[in-house]
Write a structure and sequence with these properties.
The complex is a heterodimer of chains A (about 300) and B (about 200). With about 300 residues, chain A is an alpha+beta fold. Chain A is built from nine helices and twelve strands. Chain A has a single domain, classed as Sulfite Oxidase, Chain A, domain 2, CATH 3.90.420. In chain A, strands 3, 4, 7, 8, 9, 11 and 12 form a seven-stranded mixed sheet that branches. A five-stranded mixed sheet of chain A has the order 2-1-10-5-6. With about 200 residues, chain B is mainly α. The longest helix of chain B is centred in the N-terminal third of the chain and has 30 residues. The radius of gyration of chain B is 19 Å and the shape is globular. Classes of the chains: A alpha+beta (about 300), B mainly alpha (about 200).
């Protein structure tokens, strides 16, 4: 059951970057003219109009945080080629009816791949807009059959010291692990991305498949997933283990709760050059209407 | 001997050449930033590049005394230029952060007050101001022995700079720790063992 969610922006028939570029010029002209009047006055207006023009393939694939290949933003693009992504399989285990190693091809054969144009907000206060191709995580979980007692989903990134030069250093406790509450994982916005701009997702972006949870900070969207475990206890997450004061389990994009080292009120959209203006960060990264109900009754300043 | 050759060569290097060559990275990075050569986020790249050169210049400045004391290599002539260049790079680093990165005045102040790594970096910058202002012959003459004491603030500036780097890094990263290690090592070389203790050690 795919296609549960549609982009509110009418950019659905998009595939090639060239098409995007044509449109961008149009949008840029309109947004630029409107911006003169709107800038400073209404923050929200930005995100809903010109705000969702996608970043270039170049920006998306050369500016990455994937510490298994090094801590510099350019390292993943330089070194991730070493990662072997064929063959690939995902072990789905824990509280599922059909646990096992699922070959990537078999998963793809059973999933419906869609285009999703999402904002991507890093905890470091920069952002991009990425035209992902992928399938809903809910469909993959249904494939394995989630048992009724399951409450959380744990994810694990591949760990291959021979192919990942960054893991020789103890920057984090490898392998990288992440987790979601089951309702977050089953939400139609949550996808496993397998492509960008209609092309296979490059290694530096988390090939062959990575999680995308667009209302959470980027580090939640774990890359190159090899294991998905259904569980009834909150799973450990890498950045939380590294620094629990700064990174909570939920890590929802929230302009009102600052990271101890960065204000989260604003962000810089990548691609604007040396004089890019900061733009306001919307609650839940602009997906408040879709996901706020997941957190009813939760104190989001407490549960970071 | 190598030392004499270095000293001899250094005597022929005009100080303005040090100024020129060490200013080049700043000009180069700004040029790259303006022409799209610094990648997807030129603001971050420029900010980090300027900060790192500043830290390297602080380390270079701290090397001058130990080089002379332990190896007899005399580069004292260049120390003022290196110090003032370090200050210039710190000032540019701060300017990029203020104007291009944070942009919003209220947020700039909030960051300085609320974020320890920013506070530390900013304090280091403030400590460098009196040093830059007194980096001229007149001040050296007027201040006399207190000039030396004042300029020992450099030690604090370098340590704060390295801690600033460690603190802003995510996860456990080696490079900023190496800077701190080198700086602490260079400071340790300045600790003079008191005469009596030296003699005691020889005697034992």
């Amino acid at each position: 059951m795919a296609n549960r969610w549609k982009n509110t922006l009418r950019e659905r028939d998009v595939t090639a970057e060239a098409q995007f570029l044509n449109r961008r010029q149009l949008i840029g002209g309109v947004a630029g003219a409107a911006g003169l009047g709107l800038m400073g006055a209404a923050g929200g207006a930005w995100a809903d109009t010109g705000g969702l023009e996608p970043n270039s393939w170049e920006d998306i694939t050369t500016y990455n945080n994937y510490y298994e290949f090094g801590t510099d933003k350019g390292d993943p693009a330089r070194y991730a080629e070493a990662l072997t992504i064929e063959p690939w399989s995902v072990r789905i285990d824990g509280m599922v009816d059909r646990p096992g190693d699922y070959a990537f091809e078999d998963i793809m054969a059973r999933m419906t791949v869609e285009e999703r144009l999402y904002r991507f907000r890093c905890v470091e206060a920069w952002s991009m807009v990425v035209p992902w191709n992928g399938f809903e995580l809910a469909d993959m979980l249904d494939m394995a059959g989630v048992q009724s007692g399951a409450k959380y989903v744990a994810f694990e990134t591949v760990l291959r010291p021979d192919e990942m030069r960054g893991v020789r250093r103890p920057v984090l406790d490898w392998p990288y692990v992440e987790g979601l509450r089951l309702d977050e994982a089953m939400h139609p916005l949550t996808i496993m991305a397998t492509g960008i701009y209609g092309r296979d997702i490059p290694n530096q972006n988390g090939a062959p498949l990575r999680l995308i949870v667009p209302w959470k900070y980027g580090f939640k969207s774990i890359k190159s997933v090899v294991r998905v475990t259904l569980t009834d206890v909150e799973p450990p997450t890498s950045w939380n283990k590294s620094n629990s004061r700064e990174y909570g389990f939920y890590s929802n994009v929230n302009p009102n709760v600052d990271h101890p080292r960065w204000s989260q009120a604003t962000e810089r959209r990548i691609g604007g050059g040396l004089f890019a203006a900061r733009i306001p960060t919307p609650m839940f990264n602009g997906y408040e209407d879709e996901v706020a109900a997941l957190y009813n009754g939760m104190d989001l300043t407490e549960k970071i | 001997m190598l030392r004499d050759r270095i000293n001899g060569a250094a005597r022929h290097v005009p100080v303005w050449l040090v100024w020129l060559s060490l200013s080049a990275p700043a000009v180069w990075y700004v040029w790259l930033g303006l022409t799209g050569g610094l990648g997807a986020d030129p603001i971050e790249a420029l900010e980090h590049a300027l900060g790192e050169v500043a830290l390297q210049l602080l380390v270079a400045g701290l090397c001058i005394t130990p080089l002379r004391r332990y190896l007899g290599i005399n580069l004292l002539r260049f120390r003022r230029a290196i110090g003032l260049l370090a200050f210039t790079y710190v000032a540019l680093h701060l300017a990029v952060w203020l104007v291009l990165d944070v942009q919003i005045p209220a947020q700039i102040w909030a960051d300085i007050v609320k974020r320890p790594y920013v506070t530390i970096g900013f304090v280091a910058f403030l400590l460098m101001i009196p040093l830059a202002v007194t980096s001229n012959n007149l001040s050296v003459r007027k201040l006399g022995p207190s000039w030396r004491r004042l300029h020992q603030l450099t030690y604090a500036v370098a340590v704060l700079g390295a801690v600033h780097f460690i603190w802003l890094s995510k996860g456990f990263q080696i490079e900023p720790l190496i800077y701190l290690g080198v700086i602490l090592g260079l400071l340790a070389l300045r600790v003079r063992v008191p005469r009596r203790m030296q003699r005691a050690r020889v005697g034992s």
